[in-house]
Each structure stands twice: as C-alpha cells, then as structure tokens.
Amino acid sequence: MTLLTCRFVFPSCFPSLRLTGRCVQSFLLYQHTQNSEVGFYIKMMFCCYSFCHAEEIPEDLSVSELLERANTRFDNEPELIEGDIAIPSEAEKNADPCTSRGCKWGKYTDGKVYIPYYITNHFSSREKSIITRGLESFTSFSCIRFRPSRSSDRDWLQIESQNGCWSYVGRRGGKQVVSLARSGCLYHGTVQHELLHALGFNHEQTRSDRDNHIRVLLHNVVSGMEHNFNKIATLNQGTPYDYNSVMQYHRTAFSKNGQPTMVPIPNANVSFGTAREMSRNDIARLNTLYKCCE
Ligand SMILES: [Zn+2]
To answer: Which residues, 6+ apart, have CB-to-CB distance to 96 below 8 Å?
Structure first.
C-alpha cells in the first residue's frame, strides 16, 4: 500500500525511493491516531516528498570516502591535487593562494558576504535541491550568503557536473567552476566540502601544524601521490586541529596497499576523517576568516 501510493503520487521519482525512518514513523502515527482519509493522504504526500528529496547516502561512507570514490575514475582537466583541488598551473601546487595573495570573497556594508552562483542545467530538480540545500546551509551558521548570479556579477561560482567533485581554493575572479558530478558528488557534506574550498579552505591534513596530530605514512601512499600530503600555510584561524572536520581525509586516503596513510598522534586508534558534514570547528574557522561576528 505504501509504495503503491507513493508510485501514484510521485511516479517520476519512484525508482529511487527508499523506505525511510521518517516515513515509517508517519505511518505508525497514522495507524495510532486513525486520522481521517484526508489526513492520511497529507501524511502520504509528505512521506513521498521526503522520499523524492532524500539523498541516497551510501551506508557508512564519509565525505572523504565519497570524494575518493567519485574522483578516482578520471584523468581530470584541470589538474587536481589532494584529490579534489583544482590548480590553474603547476606553480600553485605547493602554494596556498589564500595566504600568498588573498582569496576571500568581499563583504558588503550589511556585514554579509554575498557569493553569486549559477547552477548549470545539467542537474535534475532533485539534484539541484541537494546543491541548494548545501548552499543555503551556510546561512544558518555564518554570514556567507550564496545567491543566484546576475548578469552584472563579475565573480561567481559556476556549479557544473564535470568529471568528479572538485573546486579551486578561494575566489579566483570571473567565472569559477565548482564541479559536482551527478554521479557520486551530490551529497550534503560533499557540497559543503567543495564550497569550503571555494571559500578559501584547504584540507585538514595539509595544515601547517598537522605533524603534532597526524603521522603521515608516505611508504603506504600511491607512488606519485605523495604531494597530496605536503604541508601548506593554511588558514587555521586559531582553531584546533580537528579530526572531525569535513576537510579531513580518511585513514587510508591515497593508500597503495590498503594500509593507513595517516595515523593520529598520540592515540593511533582515535577515529578521524569520518565527517558527513561541517564540524563546529569548520564553522568557527569560517566565521573567523570572514569576521562574521564583527
Ligand atoms: Zn577537498
């Protein structure tokens, strides 16, 4: 009955539907209260809508693992470092453009940082809603306001479905692509991760102080991929090293043999790199960089 009604109400998205906890809950509630027929259909609509807009997050995959899974299949253009950071030239491989020349987006007189974006029409409405949810999440915890671009905008993020998930670090000027491939990148945490790059942030494991918190085991890293663990003068903004950052890669990132490429210090068993969305430190760092509270 449940799925049949779902199919009837939202036929176009039926193939991707899954029975979620929320839906089960609303049916239990229905059975309990024995509401009117109308009440039942309202709940059914809500339930099916939730289905259609649910992100099908592969079980137990962190943002870092999702990125690795999405990005290992391609020879990317532009060149990517650290798995998902686009660089315009070889010279920028070891430099953080944000510390060398500034990369912040401008702040307006009302204290907000408005960042224009344009989502290309590669995406379905369901996929667009995942992207929009990621963009809008910043409104709830910072002064960053992503807004649709206008023809008069000089700098903007162009969100496209190219090969894999990637972004440049910081504002580069003009049109700036953020790639969120339809296959593999459309998850809330992945969208937040790429937007944080565009806002000026690097990966946690490249922090200048990372050797106090992570031991990098280069002998387990795929040959030629060692540069992904170079340290950078990152924008830490006084925040502590955060194993739970959405920018922290997982234990076996870039591993050639399944063995760890990073081990936490001093307790090697501490879990890390498992974030599915921005952590409190990610938010604090963002608010400090953009002086959201001043
Ligand atoms: Zn990244």
So the answer is: 169, 202, 232, 233, 234, 235
> Is this model's pTM higher than 0.85 or not?
no
Residues with CB under 5 A from ligand 1 (ion): 84
Q: Say if residue 30 is exposed, middle or buried (CB neighbours under 10 Å; 0-12, 13-18, 19+).
A: middle
Report the chain's mean pLDDT, rounded to a whole number. Answer: 82
Contact 145, 138 (CB under 8 A): yes
Active site residue 194: yes
Q: Confirm or deny that 197 is annotated as ligand binding.
A: yes
Q: What is the Cα–Cα distance from 285 to 109, expressed in whole angstroms?
A: 21
* 188 annotated as a binding-site residue: no
Q: How many Cβ atoms from other residues are within 10 Å of residue 199's Cβ? A: 27
Quick check: 66 and 187 in contact, CB under 8 A? yes
Catalytic residue, from 68, 82, 194, 204: name it.
Answer: 194
Joined together, the tokens standing for residue 223 give 């040959």
Q: Is 193 annotated as a binding residue?
A: yes
pLDDT digits (tens, 9 = 90+) for 60-79: 789 999 988 888 756 656 77
The full set of domains in the chain, from first to last, is 63-203+280-290 (3.40.390.10)
Long-range CB contacts (within 8 A, 24+) of 9-18? 9/44, 9/45, 9/48, 10/48, 10/49, 10/51, 10/52, 13/51, 13/52, 13/126, 16/52, 16/56, 17/48, 17/51, 17/52, 18/51, 18/54, 18/56
Nearest to 250 by CA among 260, 241, 240, 239: 260
